[in-house]
Amino acid sequence: MPPPEGFLASQGAALPTLDLERLFVLTGPGTCSASESIINGLRGIDVDVVQIGASTCGKPYGFYAFDNCGTTYFSIQFRGSNAKGFGDYTDGFSPTNEPSSGTPLPGCFVLDDFDHALGDPLEGRLNTALAYRINGVCPTAAKASIVFKSVSTSHDHGDTNVRRPFVDTLGLLRQ
Q1: How far apart are CA 85 and CA 64, in angstroms?
Q2: 27, 57, 85, 156: which could join 32 in a potential S-S bond, CB 3.0 to 4.6 Å?
Q3: Sign (positive or negative) of CA dihedral 137, 141, 147, 149
Q4: How far apart are CA 148 and CA 50, in angstroms?
Q5: Beta bridge partners of 79
Q6: What is the dihedral sign for C-alpha 129, 135, 140, 142?
Q7: Tens-place pLDDT, residues 34-55
Q8: CB 92 within 8 A of CB 81
Q9: Which of 82-91 are b and which e, b meaning 16 or more Cβ less than 10 Å from the residue's Cβ?
Q10: Alpha-carbon distance 24 to 36, whole Å?
Q11: C-alpha count within 13 angstroms, C-beta hemisphere, residue 47
Q12: 3-class secondary structure for the chain?
């Protein structure tokens, strides 16, 4: 079955460009499929992709929905590959300092940080990316936390009950 209209470009046709030399990606085990395809695609056109976080899930496969007699099927139909022909990342992508079987990328292993809001320069992965951008190396935990000042260090939310995902809800899973 051919891909849907608009998914193909003529051989040799100029494609839009982002004009990037380097891109930082913040990743975790929930980083899959389309996000990994972007990482792999940019690597195929020599963009320096720096991975901050944890290994991705490893899903280089894709599909087109196929309807048959009122049922829609989503069977694997292709394995994506980049301009250099690479598409073998079934174990995901992993920062070079993470012990993993994933395809290694330059970057730093950093656990998810639920104590800081997304976008806060003190949030672990963002803080590490900002420090790496300046120094070109993974900072130690002690050094990384003092590189940038937080937008807000207040965790006072008044009467609002704020719950941290995966931490405060674990008790619900044990019942």
Answers
A1: 21
A2: 57
A3: positive
A4: 20
A5: 61
A6: negative
A7: 999 999 999 999 999 999 999 9
A8: no
A9: beeeebebee
A10: 13
A11: 21
A12: CCCCCCCCCCCCCCCCCCCCCEEEEEECCCCCCHHHHHHHHHHHCCCEEEEEECCCCCCCEECCCEEECCEEECCCCEECCCCCCCCCCCCCEEECCCCCCCEEECEEECCCCCCCCCCCCCCHHHHHHHHHHHHCCCCCHHHHCCCCCCCCCCCCCCCCCCCCCCCCCHHHHCC
Burial 110-146 (b: 16+ CB within 10 A, else e): bebbeebeeebebbbbbbbbbbbeeeeebbeeeebee
Place of tokens 């009122």: 70
| pLDDT tens per residue, range 124-152 | 999 999 999 999 999 986 444 434 444 44
Task: Give Dmax over CA atoms of the chain in angstroms.
Answer: 60
Q: Are 107 and 52 in contact (CB under 8 A)?
A: yes
Q: How many residues comprise the chain?
A: 175
Residue partners of 58: CB distance under 8 A and separation at least 6:
32, 36, 89, 90, 91, 92, 93, 102
Tell me if 80 sits within 8 A of 73, measured CB to CB: no
Q: For the whole model, what pTM was predicted?
A: 0.71
Residue whose entry in the numeric block shows the structure tokens 């980049």:
82
